[in-house]
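ingest -> validate -> predict -> emit
validate: passed (alphabet ok, no gaps, 141 aa)
predict: started
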Amino acid sequence: MESHKESLIRFIESIEDNDVISRERNRTESTSNVSEKNIPPVNPQIVRELGVRLERTAKDLDGMLRFLEKETGKMSKHTTTFVDIHSRAVDDISDVTDGAVKAMYSLLSKAAVMQRDLTKIEMMSSHLKSINKYLERWITH
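emit:
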């Protein structure tokens, strides 16, 4: 298969041979009433220079596309890394929050047990005070 460069070279050579020019002039003469005097001749040097510039532009565009492809790949890699870091951070925060909630419920449960036990102790203290009052009355009588 013919490369882009080879195709351009072949095209430029065909222009140099005046093959394309003569065909274009014949076509123009048959389809237009413009006299041949008004059509400037094609300078092969300009066509060659145009071909060189087009080739250089094609190489520049190819290099730019390779650069963009490389940078897009880097951006994708960084995006993937950042998403992974974020995911791990969310998982860690979720685990810590879950542990904190469990600890809070455990603390509340222990506080409820202590409250119940303290209520029993207060009741026992109240009974002991009552017994102590009865004893003091009995001793004093």
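The mean pLDDT is 83.
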